[in-house]
Amino acid sequence: MLGPLDYIIWLSGFFLQAAVVVAILCRGALARYYAVAAFMATSILVNCFQYLCISRYGVDSKEYSYCYYSAESLRTILLFFVIIQLCEQIFAEMHVHRYIRGGASMLLFATALFSYVVIHTHSDHLTKQFVVEFGQNLYFVGVVITYALWVAILHFRETRARLIHLVLALGLYFSGTAATYALRNLFPDMQPFILQWVPPIFGVLLPLAWSYTFWRVPEEARILRYQLEGRAAR
Amino acid sequence: MIAALICVVSIAALVQFFISYSRALLASTRNVELSERVREVAGVASRNIAAEDFGRILQFLFLCPEHNAYQGQVRAVGIYYQLLSVVNRLGGALIPRVAAWTERDRIACSYFAAVVLDRRIAQSLDLFARQASSHS
């Protein structure tokens, strides 16, 4: 049974995701950030679908478990498309779109193949433990790719504030969720007390940070590298 | 073993992303000029903003009626300020570079809070003026 805190987190996430989509449309940034808009729009639909699933089958049902974890996988894959779009913007001047798309497709194919092999091998005992471990690995791949993107931003002295905010918020989301999944894997007893709240909270923080970015950070705003490194201006 | 490794690396990445995100937030207000009004309110009319002013400015911030604007960002900067204060207490006395870095970023946190306070006061005055004109 869901408590008031569950509903608060769920509703906050829902409205913040809607705020991101509205902000992208109002700021005329759809062409540049269509993957972000698509991810948020899908998240809204997923939220509605999960709500229907809970009201029909209950929160402890097997149906809801399948719905929840498959929706999470879908959202994570969509987040990879967001990373691809951010990569394309950072490397736009180097004309390497083809290589980025090719590399990303290879990565997605490799992840899908790895998942298929693992599921095929464990098909006789697919447990919740396996799902947690798989989620942890998927989010960790996200941490590694986002970190690589962050290093590229610093290396190429990228100054676009909006892009920097988007990447850093994504990094916070991936690293926080991957750490939580890993802790869940290490200490399963902690799950009912603390850890079950952490991924939904990060799920609210991501649209919060992105809606701030689209509403308050103009496209032409710039951040210099020394400001990100915390150094004094020369 | 793999889970422990992922946990450690992810937490390290989380801390680094959080520090960079907070600095990106602080950078957005660095070149904003503070009004005389907010300098008087914050008690820094005749001097530069100091790291220790953060708590007092935050209290003024929560007294303003416009609470929702920048709330999440103020909270993030508040957490970053607390983190810097802990680092300063632990390593500041031993390593001068750490002391200089934490002091510089804590001043930037205070400045960020002052800029947000300035905007909230302006919004509140604007709201008050509109209400007054609609009643007259």
List the helices and strands and how they pair.
The complex is a heterodimer of chains A (234) and B (136).
Chain A: H1 4-26, H2 34-57, H3 62-90, H4 97-121, H5 128-155, H6 161-186, H7 191-195, H8 198-216, H9 225-228
Helix pairs in contact in A: 1-2, 1-8, 2-3, 3-4, 3-5, 5-6, 6-8
Chain B: H1 2-27, H2 36-42, H3 54-63, H4 71-91, H5 96-135
Helix pairs in contact in B: 1-4, 1-5, 2-5, 3-5, 4-5
List keywords for this structure.
heterodimer; A: about 230 residues; mainly alpha; about 80% helix; globular; B: about 140 residues; 5 helices
Provide an overview of this structure.
The complex is a heterodimer of chains A (234) and B (136). With 234 residues, chain A is mainly alpha-helical. In chain A, 78% of the residues lie in helices and 0% in strands. Chain A is built from 9 helices and no strands. The longest helix of chain A has 29 residues, at 62-90. By secondary structure, chain B is mostly helical. Chain B contains 5 helices and no strands. In chain B, helix 3 (54-63) packs parallel to helix 5. The radius of gyration of chain B is 18 Å and the shape is globular. The model of chain B has no long low-confidence stretch (mean pLDDT 88). Chains A and B meet through helix 5, helix 6 and helix 8 of A and helix 1 and helix 5 of B.
